[in-house]
Design brief:
heterodimer, A: two-stranded antiparallel ribbon, 10 helices
Chain lengths: 213, 185
Amino acid sequence: MINNEHQDLLDRYIRHELTADEYRDVENLMKNDPEFVRQASLMEHIVNATDRVNEQKAFAEMLSQIPRQKSSHRRIFITLSVAAAVILSLLYIGLSPQYTSHQLFEAYYMPLELEDTPSRGDEELTSKQRSDILGAIADIEAGAIQIAINKLSYISQHDPIYYADARWYLALLYLRQDQRTAARQQLESLKTDNIYCDQATELLLKLNKKKWF
Amino acid sequence: MENELIARVRSNPHSEIRKLYDLYRQQFFLYATSRFALDQDIISDIYQDSFVALYENIQTGRLSKLNCSLKTYLFKIATNKIHTHLAATQKYKKVSIEENWKDAHDQYSTDEWKERQDVVFKAVSEMEHLCRTMLSMFYWEQRKISEIAREMGYKSEQVVKNRKKICLQRLKEKIIEWFIKEDLS
């Protein structure tokens, strides 16, 4: 059992109230008195536990202020970004055309073959009209696409007989150049009352078809 | 110069952290001036840096569970900083009692010390409210006996001293009983 004097020394040590002489006394007791050492150890436990009991609120406050918000905001941001990227990728893939312009061009392009007889319907063909449209096709075959487009554009506006052929080939050439909107405009103008209407309607459907995942 | 974190802590008068910061600052000054030959400004800087280190260790998760008190941890950090400072400036310690005190609990292994600490923590937590309040005011807050008497409504300081003695005695008896039961004596 500790005596009052030693307990008082320990209390004042804990509270940093000892004089230099008293420190020396404590030092000697710690070296030479096992019971004092035992009591000092017990008091250390008690003071430590008392501190811990009273520190709980402050410790909880410190823990509650961990910048978890920042990290959870960051985590949420990353999660949302990934989710958005996945959705956009799916939309991009799903909503992208099922057929590329090049595929459609390859599937539908065939060089124009004109009839042996110089007539189409009730119209009589002139040699100039034939040579103009055949010239444009020859340009396509030769790879002179822009020249062919210029010629076909003129024919589509001015030639009452070959305007439909010109628009059909224009549409195909626009597809070859991946100008889908321009191609669509030409095909729309071919949907009724001409020899390309079925093909134009079919091609338009394929042109507008999406992958849908 | 005041650290940003400390400025934030000190700006909130109702914060438990601020209460701890102010309470331990006062005690650290007593501790440091009684043991080391240091200027007040140096002690102040060391305390602030140590408190920031403690806080950051908690916030970064390095210190998520305490086996000792925050105060012990804080003073340990601060004491190390003092030793570093003294070594760099060739100054000296006034007394060497820490080494002897360290010997007092070095007689137990770390695990055994922790087990003993858990038993004592339980005993203190379950102490009668009045006794716990009184011992907390005396050891944790380090209030004067006259202040405790006034605040707790006792007629004289002697009543507080007697009461404290009884509370401490009962607590020790309980702890020793539990130590024996747990084979920790």
